[in-house]
TrEMBL record:
It comes from Spirosoma soli. The keyword Cell membrane applies. The lineage of its organism: Bacteria, Pseudomonadati, Bacteroidota, Cytophagia, Cytophagales. It comes from the Bacteria. This is NCS2 family permease. The keyword Phosphoprotein does not apply.
Length: 441
């Protein structure tokens, strides 16, 4: 009887609310991980945290109320790595310029989401390259995690090497990685965020006994001691983007990469979530696809205004769907769960890099699944996909992986007499790739 009262027109409020909480637990790691990555680009941790929460709240609400899908929207993993390590560190862009590029990428995404343009672009990009880029970004994120933990280090003889195991930072990272892996495998709700918290606590002796500045030290002067656990949100990045300086021809490859990576990521998420929850419309397409893509495009546009990397839909939303979430109420509940963390930046900012490193490694593992869909026996498909896959982490650049994946696909297909498989749209993409190479971007 209680269940009947909570069910109106097929909507079970209890199930949707619990699904929303489950989805939030699966995605809340971004509240910590995103600021930890973007702070390496010179953006203030607290301000990025505020931007992350605001974007996740507003855009998840839009996804729930406008697109009516049980999908959380937040700053995307991979996109934040591209922002920091390719746009800012690799190309030397000022963070304000990079935020402007994010905004223009959102505008481009909005244009592409209108009419048949989106469909033409989607058809232009071969499926094997989409799968390879997703997995390549996963490897890139994993490499960043290992690097942040000082597990993978520079070695003049071999370019890279593995750390010695007499380093307490490395030992703490290994503990956190194994612990978080066990929690994930056992399907513990909020496994990644629990792993971050426990690894942070395990890092305490490093700060106390070894005085390592890269680890937390609760006994010294920390933000928690000075300000307390709560603090007002930091809105210093709100509107702090350079729209004019970023709207340059030389930066269009960056804008292009932001927009198209976000588009592919969104489409793969919608397809995966639709498959998980049988959320298809009468035409066999993911439910409310156009509205969902418009929401994602708006998330990228707002990300530049708020002060963070592009927003995107999260495949972890499948966790809530597995709990029975089927409507937009799931996304609304999950989005609302982000809000309290606006006021917890002093507490969250003490989390060291080694505590978020296990999360980065495991998120990379989650992103590897699409690689199994590549036909490795079909070499004219597999070789370009392989180049895209490996060049993203090996070149430390998502852009380079995209460029050489697209160009090699075109050259190989034409060379083996399959030029018809190269669409007009891909030829246009190739032109952008050549432009990016010739301009040194």
């Amino acid at each position: 009887m209680n269940d009947h009262r909570m069910t109106i027109k097929g909507l079970n409020y209890r199930t949707e609310i619990l699904a929303g909480i489950s989805t939030f637990l699966a995605t809340m790691y971004i509240i910590v991980v995103n600021p930890s990555i973007l702070s390496q680009a010179g953006l203030p941790f607290g301000a990025v945290l505020t931007a992350t929460v605001l974007l996740s709240f507003f855009c998840s609400l839009m996804m729930g109320l406008y697109a009516r899908n049980p999908i959380v929207v937040a700053p995307g993993m991979g996109l934040n790595a591209f922002f920091t390590f390719t746009a800012v560190k690799g190309m030397g862009l000022r963070p304000e310029i990079a935020l402007g590029a994010v905004f223009w990428a959102g505008i481009l995404f909005l244009i592409l989401s209108v009419g048949n343009i989106r469909s033409a672009i989607v058809r232009a990009i071969p499926h094997p390259l989409r799968y390879a880029v997703s997995a390549g970004i996963g490897l890139f994120i994993t490499l960043i995690g290992f690097e942040n933990a000082r597990f993978i280090i520079a070695n003049p003889a071999t370019l890279v090497g593995i750390a010695r195991f007499d380093d307490p930072i490395v030992l703490t990272f290994v503990f956190g990685l194994l612990l978080t892996s066990i929690l994930v495998v056992r399907n513990v709700p909020g496994a990644i965020i629990i792993g971050i918290v426990l690894t942070t606590l395990a890092a305490w002796p490093i700060g106390r006994l070894w005085g390592d500045a890269s680890a937390v030290n609760f006994g010294q002067k920390t933000l928690v001691n000075l300000q307390g656990v709560w603090a007002s949100p930091d809105f210093s990045l709100l509107g702090n983007l350079d729209l004019v300086g970023s709207f340059k021809w030389s930066l269009w490859p960056v804008i292009f990469a932001f927009a198209f990576t976000d588009l592919f990521d969104s489409l793969s998420t919608f397809v995966g979530v639709a498959e998980a929850g049988d959320l298809y419309d009468a035409d066999g397409q993911p439910r409310n696809l156009n509205r969902a893509l418009l929401t994602d495009a708006m998330a990228t546009t707002l990300a530049g205004v708020f002060g963070t990397s592009p927003g995107t839909s999260y495949i972890e939303s499948a966790v809530g769907i597995a709990q029975g979430g089927r409507t937009g109420l799931t996304a609304v509940v999950a989005g609302c769960c982000f809000l309290p963390f606006l006021f917890l930046s002093p507490l969250l900012s003490i989390i060291p890099a080694i505590a978020t490193a296990p999360a980065l490694v495991l998120v990379g593992a989650f992103m590897m699944k699409p690689v199994t869909r590549i036909e490795w026996g079909q070499l004219d498909d597999a070789l370009p996909a392989f180049l895209a896959l490996v060049l993203i982490p090996f070149s430390y650049s998502i852009t380079q992986g995209l460029i050489w994946g697209f160009l090699s696909w075109t050259v190989v297909k034409v060379a083996v007499g399959k030029g018809r498989e190269v669409s007009l749209g891909l030829w246009i993409v190739d032109a952008f790739c050549i432009l990016a190479l010739t301009t040194g971007q």
